Amino acid sequence: MVVIIGAGLAGLSAASFLGKIPYRLLEREATVGGLCRSHEVNGFTFDETGHVLHCKTAAMRRLVEGLLGDDLLPHARQSAVFSKNTLTPYPFQVHLHGLPQETVRDCLEGYVSALVSSRKLPPSGSFKGWILANFGAGIAHHFMVPFNEKLWNVPLEELTTEWTSLVPRPPLRDVINGALGINDKEFGYNTQFSYPRVGGIQSLPLAFLQRVGPVEHHKEVLEVDTKQRRVRCSDGSTFEYESLVSTMPLPVLVQRCIDLPKRIREASLKLRWTSVYAVNLAINRANISSKHWIYFPEDVFPFYRAGFPMNLSPKMGKRGASSIAAEVSHRPEASVPPAQLIKRTRAGLVRAGIFQPDDALVASEVRDIPYAYVIFDRIRARIVPMILEELERRGIHSIGRYGRWEHTSMETAMQQGKETAKALRRAVALT
């Protein structure tokens, strides 16, 4: 028997690929999806946070298309950066044209200087050092450092660089072209993507339900006995397992494993993360932006990013209206009242020229998303492999964005579920 904790994409994918192996799929919420959930507010659909499908492997593309079929809308990314009171295309480093001349000069001088110096960081280098070495002082000052400090809420010297493959690093020619207004290339991993036509991103996990057995809802796992191979849920029910697949946040899983070594339990307490307030708003005015999302590096705006759900699919809202999903990061221990967040966000949107002062809100809410971003620091790099190895030794496979304690896409979560299921099937075949 395999017990799967969590009916997000990783857990659903694992269940769907287990074949004839019996399993129990436990989910603490009333619905599936995990972080890939959607909900409605006064006729407007909002995702838990911004999600789009940019499958890069043929296998995952076939899987998603098999699940959603004609319900997928193709998109060419329309994203931008708002800084210096100017809207420029994303990524910032190859779209300097239109910014104040002194900003363009700073960025070009810094980029050339970084190339000439050819500084190489050792593997233990900080994220801030990586920014300076790869982009120079100008781009660091005007975008990279303020944006990432706003997003991560920790000094960038504390962050490592394992995740930086997501950051576009263009050659000098493309930076110069961008400063001159010559834009003949697309940059980044999500230049083309798809999105469900109806129902928001939760359409994807809901489609998985056609391929898996029943999900047992309101089953929050409170205790895992790794020696007896038994889990206990909040409703008092218990389940025995031969293998356990967990998608819950790694530090939570470790603390709920009652018989792990003390060194492992203590190490997990050092893992850090950034939480996010999703401030979802709607107004009765259409076409407030042509973008899918916009980045805001400056401190005068409380949010680091704002997305426009109805530009992903018009069925995300009402005709003649617009919706916006702003993201405000915060430390887990911090707390801001929802009314204050809505007021600050609205004022920031007016300042950016997206809202008008007399726009009336027809929908508003705030959702607090814990564990939104795993913090990649030196402690994580040292202890996560140790924790995962100990769990594997005890028959526990911790997968997914939070199970692996990493920054990964929906595609990677589904791929990890598939690979874990295949490994379990091979193990059964060998016995």
Largest sheet: 7 strands, mixed
Please count the beta strands (DSSP E, at least 2 residues each). 19
Order of strands in the sheet with most strands: 7-6-15-16-17-14-18
Tell me the fraction of residues in β-strands, as a range.
Answer: 15-25%
In the CATH scheme, the class of the largest domain would be Alpha Beta
* Fraction of residues in H or I helices: 25-40%
Q: From the coordinates shown, what is the CATH architecture of the largest domain?
A: Alpha-Beta Complex
End-to-end CA span: 14 Å
| Mean pLDDT over all positions | 94
Number of helices: 13
Number of domains: 3
Low-pLDDT runs: none
CATH topology-level fold name of the largest domain = Polyamine Oxidase, Chain A, domain 2
Shape: globular
The CATH homologous superfamily of the largest domain is termed: Protoporphyrinogen oxidase, mitochondrial, domain 2
Label the structural class. Answer: alpha/beta
CA-based gyration radius: 23 Å
